[in-house]
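Re: Re: ligand-bound prediction request (bumping)

Still looking for help on this. To restate: I need the protein modeled with 2-amino-3-ketobutyric acid bound, output as structure tokens. Inputs repeated here so nobody has to scroll up.
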Amino acid sequence: MQIIGMLRHVAMACGAGQRPLCSRWTSGLPVRFLGTSSPQSPADASFHSASFSGADRPQVLITGGLGQLGVGLANLLRKRFGKDNVILSDIRKPPDHVFYSGPFLYADVLDYKRLREIVVNNRITWLFHYSALLSAAGEANVPLARAVNVTGLHNVLDVAAEYHLRLFVPSTIGAFGPTSPRNPAPDLCTQRPRTIYGVSKVYTELMGEYYYHRYGLDFRCLRYPGIISADSQPGGGTTDYAVQIFPDAIRSGKFECNLKASARLPMMYVQDCLRATLEVMDAPAESLSMRTYNINAMSFSPEELAQEVLKHLPEFQISYNVDPVLQAIADSWPMTLDDSSARKDWGWKHDFDLPELVTTMLNFHGSDTRVAQAN
Ligand code: AKB
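Reply:
Sorry for the wait, this slipped through. Here it is.
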């Protein structure tokens, strides 16, 4: 059959005016994506966004929920939508305080059937997909990073498209590379990252946007800077030093940094990051001129961060033992992001700059007295 004739046949089989989702004959469509109900078009997506009450209230699933951000996000969402309407999932065993704080399920994003089962059985409408290996962890195990970050993404995209979910997947400053503009990196520019993490996140952005245009998937994505959190640890990232410096400064008054003193990168306090995530998920579809946005807050180097810590802890000492792999990654990332589109389209505004960040983190790690004295 000629291509045109074949497409016509598919269109007829699927019903006039519908996208040809239901046929395996359309080249390149995922065969397992056998939706029989009609897809939500981008224009329909705003039905999610009004005030959420009763039947409209989202039923949320978070994958990779035991990483740096999942528990904090679940806490926020549970305050808004009710404890039982937000399910955390992971392949790891949750600590007691997480297990007893609300619904928790085992979910391996590589297990497509299990994902579908969870979505169906719990009538999920919003999915936050946090499972991923970060930059340094990805370089240490490329096959695993490729499986989790790429195959896991395929599973999540297909489930989300099939069940018409609103899908959030984070991207990162790591989606830029040495040939991207660095100061600032705009939303749209050359992206040729040199890590498997970065490559998988560029792919995430492109696939999410492809599914949006092709199937009407309500895909939303933010490029996160390095995220600094107090009560949850990152793992395997290049920006992790900016989290670890605080407990070390409090405990021993010293910190050994694995990046150069001058390695300036975009950073954000976790509270801003989670608020941005909820805000972009809440935004009416018609306000989104794009599906992947930069978000920016502060930008600093280890040296500048240490100077700010010294204002509170005058004895603090930083030393440098540079890891060449991490430094090469940091050198290929932007120093700051241009987030003017996020600010314009859905009103993004950060609250925490470097001084507030440092005070908050030191306070959290137990130096209340010394911080209060220094102020
Ligand atoms: C990492 O360092 O890999 C992450 C990131 C910036 O995406 N924190």
